[in-house]
Structure formats: C-alpha cells, structure tokens
C-alpha cells in the first residue's frame, strides 16, 4: 500500500472505525485489530494531535431547520483580493465549505441557511458587499442525497 505521512494499515483501520462511529470503543478496535488498547489510544491521540482526524458530531441540516442549502461560486476582481475575500467568507457562520477554484470563478462555498430569506440576505447583502466580489452564481440544493467522508479504501 502506498501511504503517505508515515500512516500505516492500523492507522487507516482506526480511521475507518472512527468514520463509522466517532465514539468507537478503543477496546472493540483493539480486539478486532489485534492491537493493544494502549496502542489504539496512542494512535488516536497522535492522529488528533497531528490534525489527520478531527472527531465531531455531524448533524443532519434538514432535521435542525436549515431549509436553504446552496452552492455559491464567486468571481473576485482584482485577483490579488482572492485571499482577502476568502478570509471574510471564513467568518460567515453559514459557510460549511470553502475552496479556491480554477475556471470562471475563484471561490466556491456551500452555505446552510434557515430559509430562503436568510439565503437571500447572505448572497445579496453580505457576500455582495465584500470588497473584491465581482460576480456570483448560486445553485440551491433541493435535496442532498449523499454527504460523506472520503472512502479510505480508495487509497489502497
């Protein structure tokens, strides 16, 4: 297996367990992998400390009242303002994803809003008022069918 960053098969196995259940028992992982509980604990601690993993509770936006979920592409002019605009967007609590992209748009974000009025406020008032935002295009997600972490087996 071609693994980077000195991660080995046990690290990937532990990460797979934690992707399925962030509260997976060290005892169960040790029993099923043949490693000791202290080895599992040490490996998980190392993965957290080096920021390879971050354990959190993922919520279902629909069940909590986030009824307007959208993808927004943003063009920035001049190009030297891309980082400044990105840093402003990082402050938006509604932003769940942010990337610098290639192509016609410079940034792409996903936002989760309470409703359409909240989404309109984010797009038309807050994003458009950021210095350097030249243009944007929005697509509202009507129904999210899959929201997942990457399959670690793709690296094998």
Describe it for me?
The chain is of the alpha+beta class and 156 residues long. It has two domains: 9-49, Arc Repressor Mutant, subunit A, CATH 1.10.10; 65-141, Alpha-Beta Plaits, CATH 3.30.70. The protein is 37% helix and 20% strand. The chain has a four-stranded antiparallel sheet with strand order 2-3-1-4. Helix 2 packs across helix 3 (37-49). The chain is elongated and about 55 Å long.
Oligomer: single chain
| Structural classification | alpha+beta
The total strand number stands at: 4
Return the average pLDDT rounded to an integer.
93
Reported by name, the CATH topology of the largest domain is Alpha-Beta Plaits
Tell me the distance between the termini: 5 Å
**Strand line-up of the largest beta sheet:** 2-3-1-4
Could you state the CATH homologous superfamily of the largest domain?
Lrp/AsnC effector binding domain/regulation of amino acid metabolism (RAM) domain
Shape: elongated
> Would you identify the CATH architecture of the largest domain?
2-Layer Sandwich
Count of folded domains: 2
The CATH class of the largest domain is identified as Alpha Beta
Helix content: 25-40%
Provide the gyration radius in Å. Answer: 20 Å
Strand content: 15-25%
Unreliable stretches covering 5 or more consecutive residues? none
Order of helices and strands: HHHHEHEEHE
């Amino acid at each position: 297996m071609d693994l980077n960053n000195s991660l080995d098969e046990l690290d990937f196995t532990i990460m797979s367990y934690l992707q399925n259940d962030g509260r997976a028992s060290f005892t169960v992982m040790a029993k099923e992998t043949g490693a000791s509980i202290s080895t599992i604990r040490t490996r998980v601690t190392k993965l957290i400390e080096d920021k390879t993993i971050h354990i959190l509770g993922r919520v279902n936006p629909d069940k909590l009242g986030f009824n307007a979920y959208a993808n927004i592409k943003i063009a920035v002019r001049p190009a030297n303002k891309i980082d400044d605009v990105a840093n402003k967007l990082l402050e938006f609590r509604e932003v769940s994803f942010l990337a610098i992209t290639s192509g016609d748009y410079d940034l792409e974000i996903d936002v989760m809003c309470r409703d359409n009025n909240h989404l309109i406020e984010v797009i038309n008032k807050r994003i458009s008022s950021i210095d350097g935002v030249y243009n944007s295009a929005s697509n509202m997600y009507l129904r999210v069918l899959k929201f997942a972490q990457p399959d670690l087996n793709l690296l094998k």
